[in-house]
Structures are given as structure tokens and as C-alpha cells.
Amino acid sequence: MKIWDMPKLPAPEQLEKQMRILAALDLMMCEEEWLRVHRYDSAWSDDETMGSLNNGSGDVVFVVFAPEGAIIKGFDHESPYSPHAQEEYGTWPGIYDEVPEALLHRIQDVAFTHEDVTFCIWWENGNSAWHSSEYEQPDGWEDGANFLLGYLCDSPEGYQEWAQGYFEEELDLAAVSAVFEGAEITKELIASLNPERDAEEALEELEALGLLALS
To answer: What are the DSSP E strand ranges found in the chain?
Structure first.
């Protein structure tokens, strides 16, 4: 087992808040759920919440927040670590070997496609860092972590820049900043971000996903 430090990630509590903010922004910017990159479900199970990234090109990240800590499973479909890139289909040897069983169990739901993994990291409660298993990593091989976790914009300016490219819309930085700062999400705030969005519908969906209160 080794400490994970590339790329840098905040502790689970801050990471979950960050994913909630990004999911709320995507929801307000985009009516179609399947076109959103950032997603979050506050009631994934009785004792879990779940955030995810899906870039629509076959690359996904799932983050499960549970009583034992948090676990991240990422899949870059072009990575040589992909099970689809092996001569015999299978998870790259060692990726899951040192994951604590209580956390590994959290990503074995069929929705997570357990075998499709190119990197896996975790943070157990009581620890002070993210960890990953020790396994063979050939020189020059990319597991997709830098690429995929780069979608986790950690500032209003970062999200504004990314979203203007993705949604092809000019975003109001003050409105984006208000969401990052935990302001109450209102019809007026939604209109500032996306005047074409049905604000009532967006508010209903935000409430259903547990995203109305972000502070």
C-alpha cells in the first residue's frame, strides 16, 4: 500500500462538498441528465452517498462516501491498464489487492462495473491521506487519473472555464461563485447561470438529489 499524491485531492469531506457543488452547477446548466459530466446522489444507499464523473466518451469515475471512509474507482477506456486492453480480459493485477475489504465492498454494486478499472484509491476514516495498492506500473503507462480527476474543478474560475468549453455558453462568474460559496439556490440564481433552464424543474431535481443546501 502506498500514499497517493498524484494528482492532489482534498480529504473526503471537502471532496464530497466539491462534487456536490459541481453536480448542482451541471444540473442547472443542462436539462438532460445523460449529458452532465458531474453527478451526485445523496441517497445512493441507506448509508452511502455517491458522486461520479462521466465524460460521455467511455471514461467514468465513481466516488462512494461511506461510514468507513471514501473510495474512488476510475476507468479510462484508452488506458493500457483497461481490462479491454489485456490479451485475456481482466482487471490489471494488483489494483484492488490492498483495498480494505469494507471499502472494496462498496464498489461491487453492478452499477459500478467493478472490472472496468484503471485506478482505485481510498481514504479510511482515521487516516490522513489517500492510498492505493502497490502493483506493477510499466514506464510511460497512464491510468487516466490525472486526466479524469482534472474534471474536479476546485474554483469558480476553473468551473467557468471548463463549462464554457463544454456547454458552449458564457457563464456569469458571480453566479458560479455564489454556488461555490454556498448561497441559497433560487430561481433567480438559476436564471443568472442559464436563462433557458426551467428553474422550477431544476429546483425539484436539486431537492431530490439532496443538492439544495451546499454550504
So the answer is: 2-3, 38-45, 48-54, 60-66, 69-75, 119-124, 131-132
Would 196 be classed as within a structural domain? no
pLDDT above 80 (res 148): yes
- Centroid of chain to Cα 80: 22
Query: What is the rounded CA–CA span in Å between residue 48 and residue 62?
Result: 12
What total number of domains does the chain contain?
A: 1
Write down the pLDDT at residue 44.
93
Mean pLDDT to the nearest integer, 139-146: 96
Q: Is 190 within a domain?
A: no
Q: Residue 87 has what pLDDT?
A: 87
Q: What pairs with residue 53 in β-bridges? A: 38, 61
The Cα–Cα gap between 187 and 199 comes to 5
Going by C-beta distance under 8 Å and a sequence separation of 6 or more, which residues neighbour residue 142? Answer: 76, 79, 80
> Judging by DSSP bridges, how do beta strands 60-66 and 38-45 pair with one another?
unpaired
Does residue 134 carry a pLDDT above 80? yes
pLDDT at site 215: 64
Residue 178 counted as domain residue: no
Residue 106 has pLDDT above 70, yes or no: yes
For residue 208, how many other CB atoms are within 10 A of its CB? 12
User: Domain span at residue 102?
Assistant: 2-154
- What per-residue confidence (pLDDT) applies to 55? 95
Does residue 45 sit within a domain? yes
Strand partners, 48: 45
